[in-house]
Write a structure and sequence with these properties.
- This protein is mainly beta.
- Helix content is about 5%, strand content about 55%.
- The protein starts with 7 loop residues before the first strand and ends in a 7-residue tail after the last strand.
Length: about 250
């Protein structure tokens, strides 16, 4: 039986760097700015998560649209996920009008309503609200930014379809205030920030994936194993980062 699957690969050739206008081994602030026109079918989001010393896990995501609705125009969304030590698990969504969204191409400076996700590859301020949950976060990187080659997975014979991912803060220190209705919580901990963008719905590109990150002593790591969709022959795509401190070499 003839295999009619299309190719999928990590863009890591010199011509790929030229195509995406980035330098090998060097990350600039503009790379964390908005990368795509938010019109259909493009999807883009800025992601933060943390593990706090009070036992909570907090994530805040700024999205150009709901990932389940990629063929819609700009529909800005703030998602806040909060797991509490008392067992409560909250997943809240704040939906906004297109006119309430702004994002810079020069660096990470995203506004949705009165809330912001902004930073310079080393320090970030994140504020968000979704239903009855709000969060105010300061994230300071303790590692350098890292990008797996160009950060782009490219799909199809013409490689016009892509999914891009860059962890701009693989590991950082967090100071957070989060509120659930009238409850106010303040804590510190460790956090992470990455940025994703694609010009096709994720379900079209990937069949499934595993993703993990952590810290052992002075070392932090990120691992990912992605399997492309059937159309792309279930091609395995793998990443691994190991970094030792802010002045260390992230590989």
């Amino acid at each position: 039986m003839t295999n009619h699957s299309e190719p999928a690969r990590l863009a890591d050739k010199p011509e790929d760097y030229a195509r995406f206008k980035i330098a090998k081994g060097h990350i600039e602030p503009w790379e964390d700015g908005i990368r795509l026109d938010p019109a259909a079918p493009n999807i883009e989001w800025w992601y933060f998560d943390s593990h706090l010393e009070d036992g909570a896990s907090l994530a805040v995501i700024f999205c150009t649209k709901d990932a389940s609705r990629p063929n819609q125009p700009l529909e800005p969304l703030i998602e806040i996920d909060l797991d509490l030590p008392d067992g409560r698990r909250l997943m809240k969504y704040g939906r906004f009008k297109a006119a309430e969204f702004e994002a810079s191409k020069d660096g990470c400076n995203v506004r949705i309503g009165n809330y912001r996700f902004a930073g310079d590859l080393h320090e970030y301020t994140i504020t968000g609200a979704a239903e009855d949950v709000t969060a105010e976060v300061r994230l300071e990187g303790t590692t350098e930014p890292w990008r797996p080659e160009t950060g782009n997975l490219v799909f199809g014979p013409e490689e016009e379809t892509f999914f891009a991912w860059t962890p701009f803060i693989p590991l950082g220190k967090v100071t957070a205030t989060y509120r659930i209705g009238s409850e106010v919580h303040e804590s510190t901990g460790t956090g992470y920030h990455d940025h994703n963008w694609m010009n096709k719905e994720m379900g079209h590109l990937l069949d499934h994936w595993w993703w993990a990150k952590g810290q052992v002593g002075p070392y932090s790591f990120i691992m990912a194993h992605l399997v492309a969709a059937k159309k792309y022959g279930y091609t395995p795509l793998q990443f691994y980062m190991l970094c030792a401190g802010r002045q260390g070499d992230c590989r």
